[in-house]
Amino acid sequence: MTGSNGAQHPATVDVIVVGAGHAGLATSRCLAERSIDHLVIERGEVANSWRSERWDSLTLLTPNWQSRLPGYRYSGDDPNGFMTMPELIEFIDGYATFLDTPLQKQTNVTAVRRGDEGYEVTTDKGTWHCRSVVLANGACNIPAVPKVSEQLPDHLDSITTHDYRNPEQLRQGGVLVVGASATGLQLADEIHASGRPVTLAVGEHVRLPRTYRDRDIQWWMHHAGVLDEGLDDIDDIVRARSLPSPQLVGSRERQILDLNAMSDAGVRLVGRLMNIREGEAQFSGSLRNVAALADLKMDRLLNAIDEWAETSADAAEYAASERFERTRIDDKPLLCMDLNSGNISTVLWATGYRPDYSWLDIPVLDRKGRIIHDQGVADVPGLYVLGLPFLRRRKSSFIHGIEDDARFIVEHLAGSL
């Protein structure tokens, strides 16, 4: 078969990798190092999700010095900056070129089934047979919109972060942003700056300062070993894998974007959206408790960083310890909102994503549609998964965290081959 990059690809290979984002390309590098015959299949272009399914102003939450993949790393002159989407796409494109990856682009996988001697991977461009499959199509394929969205009044616009690009595509009028992770806060801030009144519905969230003791919070978590915490360091891995992304934004100003910053800007804070009944949105009354819990967990992390810093050989070089103002919540936060009043024209769902395995014809999913795996090794021989939150370590969610996971998977895969 002829791949979309012009190369001839045989219909039988040892390994098929699904997805040509950073996870799939990192896997390709590790397979090539062991001379394992493989093919990467991509539904669009390299870095397709970053290229076509993210908003215009998005930047990475991690500094450029953390942008590294097996055999490849950021080499620009702004190591402490944050990549924009065009810069990230160029970075991942450059990695694919550097690797000369065996790649089949613009090819949709429609089914993966067990075969006589491995797996049968069916696509709209033909069928491949292989001994192992690595699913590296990521965790952010389909917006996870809560069922309450079905009760929205028809006259309101409803949009997810998958389709949102910039405030100009929104109608004039108030916007209700549902979700207060990194995405929810960034978009609430951007939309409010466009002149639209914004209400932010806040559920469980992870509060972090952008900088701490004069260094980026990612520097501290990297050097203090927080990002290297593994499964044995976590009491409840299911919960750890479902935590929202931390409230961070990558900007030259290194601004701290938290609920206090939202309030100061004029964004109205309400509790989690619980129900919509006859056009009335009903919010949880636990906003104060939810915010207090996020403050407590942030302080626990900062305490752990302080403990590490004080025992470090470089302790004298670090700035003094600091703490941040508690999250300010109104004494009586709004519990109900009339969506028929004309004050809200758009609801933006910043409620996360879920992976798409609709084409996976193998009994390896749990009741929530998640792959049953142990550190990326699926519950059937020869099937692997990469690019999921806390796959093996806390840093699994970040670009620089994929190398450890990919090497572990490929080592296991090579042994099974």
Could you tell me the mean pLDDT? Answer: 95
Q: What is the domain total for the residues?
A: 2
Which range best describes the helical content: under 10%, 10-25%, 25-40%, 40-55%, 55-70% or over 70%?
10-25%
CATH class of the largest domain: Alpha Beta
Return Rg in Å: 22 Å
Q: Biggest β-sheet, characterized?
A: 5 strands, parallel
The third-level CATH topology of the largest domain is FAD/NAD(P)-binding domain
Residue fraction in strands: 15-25%
The overall strand count is 24
Shape: globular
Q: Taking strands numbered 1, 2, ... along the chain, how are they ordered across the largest sheet?
A: 5-2-1-9-24
The CATH superfamily of the largest domain bears the name FAD/NAD(P)-binding domain
Straight-line N-to-C gap:
24 Å
CATH architecture heading of the largest domain: 3-Layer(bba) Sandwich
Runs in which pLDDT lies below 50 for 5 or more consecutive residues are none
Q: Please identify the structural class as seen in this structure.
A: alpha/beta
Question: Count of DSSP helices?
Answer: 9
